[in-house]
Amino acid sequence: MGSTDKAVITGFICRLCSKMNRFVIHIYGEEGERMKLAEKINAYLPITVNMNDPLPKTACLHCIERLEAHHELMEQFLLAKRRLTTQNKSSTVASTSTQTVDTAPTSSPPPC
Length: 112
Known about the structure:
Elements: H1 3-10, E1 24-26, H2 30-34, H3 37-44, E2 58-60, H4 61-102
Antiparallel strand pairs: 1-2
């Protein structure tokens, strides 16, 4: 059995970068579940992980840090989108109510 085979069996190969590393987190272990690693991997990366596939179920700390940074960036983008959408709706409502007031009929006769 080669060293790569042994690393896969003992769980020291990172699923994301395929490098052997002594410090890994099991994607479906307690820490991996707490960090929602499987959800983030499936959401942000062009790979799919599931508990029943035959590939390694561990991720190295370097890849996890990068995944977490990407997740935080995506969260910032979504928050900015919600803020801008809310501001745009508020501006549209204010603009519409201003236009309604401006176009209300007046008591003076219309111009000829």
